[in-house]
Amino acid sequence: xxxxxxxxxxxxxxxxxxxxxxxxxxxxxxxxxxxxxxxxxxxxxxxxxxxxxxxxxxxxxxxxxxxxxxxxxxxxxxxxxxxxxxxxxxxxxxxxxxxxxxxxxxxxxxxxxxxxxxxxxxxxxxxxxxxxxxxxxxxxxxxxxxxxxxxxxxxxxxxxxxxxxxxxxxxxxxxxxxxxxxxxxxxxxxxxxxxxxxxxxxxxxxxxxxxxxxxxxxxxxxxxxxxxxxxxxxxxxxxxxxxxxxxxxxxxxxxxxxxxxxxxxxxxxxxxxxxxxxxxxxxxxxxxxxxxxxxxxxxxxxxxxxxxxxxxxxxxxxxxxxxxxxxxxx
Length: 330
Fold this sequence. Notes:
330 residues; rod-shaped
């Protein structure tokens, strides 16, 4: 198999002559030629004025020709540099597209496994909720008989009704820990991230967080199809005070620092996908609404450190990107 052509490196044994040295040598040769011409013509009896006249005539004849060829060489060098720049730009663009294709292939290879695990977790959660609802709404016949004894003479004379043993229809769920909320919104790093999957399972028990996680999953999957991965984004960090202002309803310039995504390529691809794909546009708005609602609840009890860690998650970066595209940050 023939190897692709590679640019040949200059021969290390060849020494290039610097341009300054070449100019100095040519100038010296020109001065020597002038001195020889003056001497030879002087020996032939010509005056200095006649010699200078011959030199001026020679310059008038040959200098325009030299300038024309110099201009031709300069234009040729400029054209070659422009062509080389175009080839280099095309090569860089080809490398970028190849890298994006590789990333998309890697993302599509990992996507089925992650989606299967998330679907399994969601199915298990729904099954657990169904069982809890069934158990808590059903009363035990033995307890029911004990709680409602047969009425006797004393009971007949008493105007009060017997006490019924009613259970709470829904169990009281523990509030979601801030660390689990943050880790769940970052999603598991890989298939072996047991702590990430455990935090995700605990987060899915909370209705509002589960809705946000599913909306974020839809958005991140679609963005990955465009070659946009949240790990590659490096948005400008906003102060926790700006996040808190957004939580209490501030919009526009007051929270403009939240739109810290500066990658023009990602912004352009996201904007184009939202314009051309109504399904993605609907999923993006659903994700923005879910993030807004859940962040209001999270901010009321979160510390500045919790907000800073939340801003580094993949879901928060997707929120910054989509918020910048939709213009909610001004």
